[in-house]
Design brief:
With 618 residues, the chain is α/β, with parallel strands linked by helices. The chain is built from 21 helices and 22 strands. The strands form five sheets. Strands 10, 13, 15, 16, 17, 19, 20 and 21 form an eight-stranded mixed beta sheet that branches. The chain has a six-stranded parallel beta sheet with strand order 8-6-5-4-1-9, with helices on both faces. A four-stranded antiparallel beta sheet has the order 7-18-22-14.
Length: 618
């Protein structure tokens, strides 16, 4: 009789030992992993980066260029990089690129700038134009700029055009495909799946919900999108043509024109680029090395020219201890980058609560006399946008002027949070406007019915127990549409009150229509064309400041996150840089996944959004 209890005890004891041993193994692996990382970090001191005299700065940007990086768990990011398990492209701060170029211009050890842009990801015309201006200032130092590449994408080539010389690999390619806005449409798929979309919108041109109600782009959306895309393409062509010294007519915008030129060079894309004036010469990797050796000069005994790469040079700049000037008066910069969501969000996403908190911090800091709100957002939650805008109003009431500085996007909710600023700056290529409101939700009662699943019950009112598994009644639909109508009226009234316009005037340029920054200035939606620095100067002038500092107000990392970031960040510097490349099929699937996921992460409490989904340029 006692054998069974003893057997039971032995089994339990064995299970406990197995769990305990597994726990110790996991803990030991983590412990020794941290020890290894620690020693790797220490070894960094033994491999100091030294910038030799007559060095070339290699601007080898790897990743997407952003105004603000998304916050990621430092340990997870390290493990992803170590295991080559990255599912997102790396991000490079625009400010870091500008800092490197500006510092190199005055660094006597740096004799030239080499643009090696093969791994540069998405950026957008507004950001590459800002970098191009920095390259132009670098050239004023008298140091040469050379662009080298095996291939050039459109954004990469825009930067390359600002170089003194462009070298392309003989087997490389360069085709400029212009700007387009193409997206997926789901109406037929939704019907086949028996999903019921409930769409509420105001604005003839508010096309964010069109993919769920059509299988193609409406004529209104086509007209609106074509206008601002033409503005961007015209800016691109004018800038590149000016740098390369040819006419804007040199751009091949039809397949027939391109085919004719390619036939003349037997389909050789590199030769086409050379003959068409896009590049200055064709050079293999070895020829590039030899040419740079000759240009920079190689000391006796050296195999190749001295150089320092972007990432290494940036790390040196970040290690330097600058002289801190103590200013009693400061202009604060608050970055609002990403989709606008309700609540508190990490950097890289705008949170109604978290971004409002940053603005409140600026309001409560006596040393801050003015604020620049740097907006790079297509919009999002209407409720969260209003929470942020209210903080802008409170700053103004506190006697602190606010200047909005628009980056690549400041549309829909991005314009909403900018509208109350004392002054609005935009780049000529900023995508802005999209003043409109919509509501969107899906119900699945018909889809579930096909599976034999039903929802039924009782409630004390018509509104009780609403779920996506039940249909929306006409009464509830009317209530939501009235709320959307009110939201649109609030939006155009807000713009009218702050832009010295009537609501009728605003409505005529609103209706969800998207504009370029240059056109928005003509229409009165922005005050001046310029960048972040222009906005900072304007904010200081509004606050009557001559001697002032600039401070960035951002979310502070916790001590734990800061420690992990420092440890894992140093260790990851020794890992090979990963290249984020997707096949065309993977890109299409990622786009589909992203658009469907947008239905789940948008979290406005009333399901009402001011979001420009057509602002993504391809």
């Amino acid at each position: 009789m006692g054998e069974k209890p003893n057997l039971f005890k032995r089994v339990l004891f064995g299970m406990f030992n197995a769990i305990n041993v597994s726990r110790k193994i996991v803990i030991n692996l983590l412990f020794f992993g941290l020890i290894i990382i620690f020693f790797v970090s220490i070894s960094n001191d033994n491999e100091m980066i030294i910038v030799e005299n007559n060095s070339a700065l290699i601007l080898d940007i790897s990743g997407d260029i952003v105004e603000q990086k998304k916050q990621v768990d430092p340990m997870q990011a390290f493990m992803n990089e170590a295991l080559s398990n990255n599912d997102q492209p790396p991000e490079i701060l625009l400010a870091d690129i500008l800092k490197v170029i500006e510092s190199a211009a005055s660094d006597k050890r740096i004799s030239s700038l080499v643009l090696k842009l093969d791994r540069m990801g998405s950026a957008g015309l507004t950001k590459v134009n800002i970098i191009a201006q920095a390259i132009d200032k670098f050239k004023e130092s008298g140091k040469p700029v050379t662009a080298i590449g095996e291939n050039f994408t459109q954004d990469q080539y825009y930067l390359a055009s600002y170089a003194d010389d462009i070298w392309l690999d003989p087997n490389g390619w360069l085709v400029l495909d212009g700007y387009g806005r193409y997206q997926l449409y789901y109406k037929s798929a939704i019907e086949k799946l028996a999903i019921t979309p409930h769409i509420f919108r105001v604005g003839t041109y508010k096309s964010a919900v069109e993919p769920y109600m059509r299988d193609d782009m409406s004529e209104q959306a086509r007209e609106s999108n074509q206008l601002w895309l033409n503005d961007l393409w015209s800016k691109y062509k004018v800038d590149v043509a000016e740098q390369r010294g040819f006419q804007v007519s040199n751009f091949d915008e039809t397949a027939d024109a391109l085919v004719a030129k390619l036939e003349a060079v037997n389909g050789d894309l590199a030769k086409y680029a050379l003959d068409n004036g896009w590049v200055d010469s064709l050079k293999t990797r070895n020829q590039v090395e030899l040419a740079l050796n000759e240009m920079l000069g190689v000391d006796d005994g050296d195999d190749t020219y001295e150089s320092v790469h972007f990432r290494d040079y940036l790390s040196l700049l970040n290690l330097e201890f600058p002289i801190h000037h103590t200013f009693s008066d400061n202009v604060a910069v608050v970055v609002a980058k990403g989709t606008i969501l309700n609540g508190s969000q990490d950097p890289g996403i705008i949170g109604g609560d978290s971004t409002a908190r940053l603005l409140r911090d600026a309001r409560e800091d006596d040393s801050i006399k003015a604020v620049v709100l740097r907006v790079d957002s297509p919009g999002g939650s209407a409720f969260a946008s209003e929470i942020i805008r209210q903080e802008v109003e409170l700053l103004k009431q506190a006697g602190k002027p606010v200047v909005a500085s628009m980056g690549t996007y400041a549309a829909s909710g991005g314009y909403w949070i900018s509208a109350s600023a004392d002054k609005i700056y935009a780049a000529p290529t900023t995508i802005t406007g999209s003043i409109g409101i919509y509501g969107l939700m899906m119900t699945f009662e018909n889809a579930l019915r096909k599976l034999g699943v039903y929802t039924d019950g009782v409630g004390t009112t018509e509104f009780a127990g609403f779920t996506p598994t039940r249909p929306i009644s006409n009464g509830i639909a009317q209530i939501i549409q009235m709320n959307v109508n009110k939201g649109y009226q609030d939006f155009i009234t807000l713009v009218a009150d702050n832009r010295n316009m009537t609501t009728t005037e605003v409505d005529s340029i609103a209706q969800g229509r998207v504009w370029s920054g240059a056109k928005a200035k003509e229409l009165g939606l922005v005050d001046e064309l310029g960048g972040l620095e222009d906005a900072i100067v304007a904010a200081a002038e509004l606050a009557d400041m001559e001697d002032y500092g600039t401070v960035l107000i951002e979310k502070q990392l916790s001590p734990t996150d800061l420690f992990l970031k420092n440890v894992f960040g140093q260790a990851s510097a020794f890992l090979p840089e990963s290249v984020f490349e997707l096949s065309p099929i993977e890109k299409a699937m990622a786009e589909l996944k992203g658009e469907l996921e947008s239905l789940t992460y948008l979290n406005d409490p009333k399901n009402i959004y001011t979001l420009c989904m057509s602002c993504d340029v391809q």
